[in-house]
Amino acid sequence: MSGEFVTAAVAHGVGTITLSRPTALNALNEQVLRELRETLAAWELSDDVDVVVLTGAGEKAFAAGADISELVAKGAIEMAGSSGMQEFFTWITNFPKPTIAAVNGFAFGGGLELALACDIRIASDNAKLGLPELSLGIIPGAGGTQLLTNLAGRGPALFHILTGLPLGAEEARAVGIVSEVTTREELLGRAAELAQLIRTKGPLAARLAKLAVGAAHAAPATGLLVEKLSQAVLFSTADAKEGMSAFLEKRNPAFTDVLTRKDGTVA
Fold first, then answer.
1. pLDDT for 85-136, tens place per residue?
2. 4-13 long-range CB contacts below 8 Å, 24 or more apart?
3. Catalytic residues, which ones?
């Protein structure tokens, strides 16, 4: 079942989903997310799919992030709701079947968060991974603050979130974000090999292994709530609107919001 921006194919027990919006570097707009959810929901109950591989169309990007033209119209109440990307990506993290992200090219913002929500990540040697949301006056709000910290540790997570500096494929492997690096030409073939290897294991054992590993990170449920509420606060600020507008207008943002001390003076 394929849509306008998501193509899906099943072969030998492996379901491959390709984000196919290459003119926008596979940016995650609402339609992309809806088609992705529909495909995964169908495969969750399908006996034909044992392992899911997720990748992006074209040579430039896995997914360049959320569609800023849609985000800029959102407010605090919408970001604090229960039907956004954070809940969707948490559902992917808890998806009962193993998932592999084959990261080709850019995986920024929500694109990286989508990859982080998968069980295994492999990357092509031209991949660039990053969370640049602070440049927009917001934070990674689809689970990125928790997922990156769980994988890379507090120090690397804060470094890359606060600076927005991207990681190359080998850097990402060094800090544990990706497991393997291949050439662009070998990427999908390697993902298929790993998927078939996983299929040789007990399917119930694979599901329970995911459940057990997930239990080790049960505490981040609190972190996800903090992330959501923080993002909701930020979406009520002038800086968030300025940051996203500047991105769309291809100019540097002029942030104005400031922190104040308890005595009322500016920090």
1. 889 999 999 999 999 999 999 999 999 999 999 999 999 999 999 999 998 8
2. 4/31, 4/35, 5/29, 5/31, 5/32, 5/35, 6/32, 6/35, 6/36, 6/39, 7/57, 8/39, 10/43, 10/46, 10/48, 10/49, 12/196, 13/48, 13/49, 13/50, 13/51, 13/195, 13/196, 13/199
3. 113, 133
Sequence spans of domains, the chain: 6-204
**Helix axis angle, 144-152 relative to 154-163, nearest 10°?**
130
Angle between helix 144-152 and 110-117 (nearest 10)? 60
Percent of the chain scored above 70 by pLDDT?
A: 85
Which pair of structure tokens corresponds to residue 152? 């890379």
Distance CA 95, CA 210 (A): 9
Tell me the one-letter amino acid at 246: A
Give the CATH H-level superfamily of domain 6-204. Answer: 2-enoyl-CoA Hydratase; Chain A, domain 1 (3.90.226.10)
Of residues 66 and 74, the one with the higher pLDDT is 66
Contact 130, 175 (CB under 8 A): no
